[in-house]
Design goal:
Elements (H helix, E strand, L loop, with lengths): L11 E3 L1 H7 L2 E6 L9 H14 L8 E5 L3 H13 L2 E7 L4 H9 L3 E5 L11 H11 L3 E3 L7 H17 L5 E4 L5 H13 L4 E7 L4 H7 L26 H6 L5 E5 L1 H13 L6 H19 L6 E6 L13 H6 L17
Parallel strand pairs: 2-10, 3-4, 3-6, 4-5, 7-8, 7-10, 8-9
Antiparallel strand pairs: 1-2
Helix pairs in contact: 2-3, 2-6, 3-4, 6-7, 10-11
The structure holds 4'-deoxy-4'-aminopyridoxal-5'-phosphate (PMP).
The site of 4'-deoxy-4'-aminopyridoxal-5'-phosphate has 18 residues, from helix 7.
Length: 342
């Protein structure tokens, strides 16, 4: 077994230039500093520990997971360290950088059509489940369904945030599996009940609507992913992880891909190089802080998650060609005054 770098205990960074411009205090949890490069390292450790402690994952076993990419990287890294094999399936929207990283770490990678609906055997989550059930000594770690995912955040991310900022006014974050927001929200609701929790929902996702109406509208996104170009977040169904956090979420707001992409460059030009979901979280945290300010909170302190680093998206938002093909020319020249659409 090779030594592993520590996961968690990441710094909570004040986003100074943005804070100075808007008169708020946004704090970004620098999850891109985890050894696998994302917040999903935390969930992956918790899932592997859970399945090995329960006796479902035995030495030398095969770990199977359907992933938006980062959980696959985290599991591939940990499986290498712990002597397991790793199979990951993912939609064809995942960046080539993430796929190459998983393969370099020794995982078997299957890319599935993003057009498949969640009930389709070709959907990336169905493939992981089916490989696990048809292979001896294999386990499906089920990051959407297993609450070991959110526990990584109720016992790790949440307490770390509150220790770094004991007088936190708000926490705002988007959901993929929902593990991060559910875990942080459930911890804060008992340890800091005055902290307001806000879901940030990307375009095409159904969670904001679910929170207000209790149901998902038929939006034509049966693949469960929505139509956002922001990888790893946005969902059109209720996962067990997100459901466990619902009682602790006080507010919800939307953020667009355009806002997230503009924020990517504003952060990068200030020396914080992150992926689009991190940037979308910052957009949401900013909107939520401005809302709290309008309600009379002076210089509101709002924390969010900087989920992963920008290097995984050099072939996507950080590629001039990719931006031009999608009509996003010029997003890199946006100023603070133009970052929000409304
Ligand atoms: N951002 C990225 C890039 C991700 O890969 C994920 C995980 N799907 C998230 C955000 C959302 O995290 P969670 O699954 O804990 O909701």
């Amino acid at each position: 077994m090779l030594p592993s770098a520590p996961i968690g205990n990441t710094p909570l960074l004040p986003l100074s230039a943005l804070n100075a411009h808007f008169g708020v205090t946004l704090l970004g949890k620098a999850e891109y500093l985890n050894p696998g490069g994302s917040v999903k390292d935390r969930a992956a450790v918790s899932l592997l520990d859970h399945y090995s402690a329960s006796g479902q994952l035995l030495p030398g076993g095969l770990v199977c997971e359907g992933t938006g990419g980062n959980t696959g990287i985290a599991l591939a890294m940990l499986c290498g360290q712990r002597g397991y094999s790793c199979y990951v399936s993912m939609p064809d929207t995942v960046s080539s950088e993430k796929i190459s990283t998983m393969r370099a770490l020794g995982a078997t990678v299957e890319v599935c059509p993003s057009t498949a609906s969640v009930s389709d055997p070709e959907h990336y989550t169905s493939r992981a489940r089916s490989i696990a059930s048809s292979t001896p000594n294999a386990v499906h770690t089920d990051q959407f369904g297993s609450l070991a995912n959110m526990r990584a955040h109720s016992t790790g991310t949440g307490p770390e945030i509150l220790a770094a900022c004991p007088d936190l006014d708000g926490f705002a974050c988007a959901a993929g599996t929902g593990g991060t927001i559910a875990g942080v929200a459930s911890y804060l609701s008992s340890s800091s009940p005055s902290t307001q929790i806000c879901l940030v929902d990307p375009q095409g996702s159904g969670l904001k609507n679910y929170l207000s109406s209790g149901s998902f509208s038929k939006s034509g996104h049966e693949n469960g992913l929505g139509d956002t170009l922001t990888e790893g977040i946005g969902i059109g169904r209720l996962t067990s992880n997100f459901a466990s956090g619902v009682p602790h979420v006080h507010a919800a707001l939307s953020a667009s891909d355009l806002e997230a992409f503009r924020m990517c460059f504003l952060l990068a030009r200030g020396g914080v190089f992150v992926g689009p979901s991190a940037a979308l979280n910052v957009v949401g945290a900013l909107k939520f802080a401005l809302r709290l300010k309008r309600l009379g909170v002076v210089n509101p302190k709002v924390a969010t998650i900087l989920c992963d680093g920008g290097a995984s998206y050099l072939s996507k938002i950080y590629s001039e060609e990719w931006r031009e093909e999608r009509g996003l020319k010029g997003v890199e020249r946006c100023g603070w005054e133009d970052v929000l659409e409304d």
